[in-house]
Amino acid sequence: MKKIFVAEIDGRAVVAFTAEDREAADDWIRGPASIADLCCLETEGMPLLADPDNPEILLREPLPEEEASWRKSRDANEPDAEDWLMYLVPVTDATDDPPDDDGSANYDNVIKLC
């Protein structure tokens, strides 16, 4: 069974995801695809990861409330999924057009890959 991990950037928990173990989680979060996503996704107008060449990412186990949020998100979308990723902060994709007046381009806590 996979475990849930949380990645913190600049002291802020930004994403919860599953991996077989800590080594696999570290490899995935520091992999080129994850780094690219973290650089193109923004929260409050700033990229989740500002410096892709020197990523300061802390990997840890989830707090009880983070795990509960992750499980609630997974269960509401893909209850049988062993692999699930959930952003713990509201995110927008910096590569998208600016949001419409109704905010329709805002992807709060939803997987949006670049």
Which properties best describe this structure?
alpha+beta, 3 helices, four-stranded antiparallel beta sheet, three-stranded antiparallel beta sheet, 114 residues, single chain, globular, disordered C terminus, 7 strands
Measured between the Cα atoms of the first and last residue, the distance is: 28 Å
- Strands ordered across the widest β-sheet: 5-1-2-6
Q: How many structurally independent domains? A: 1
Shape estimate: globular
Unreliable spans are 104-114
> What can be said about the biggest beta sheet?
4 strands, antiparallel
Strand content: 25-35%
- The residue-averaged pLDDT reads 86
**Element order: H for helix, E for strand:** EEHHEEEHEE
> C-alpha Rg, in Å?
14 Å
Q: Helix amount, in percent?
A: 25-40%
Helix count from the secondary structure assignment: 3
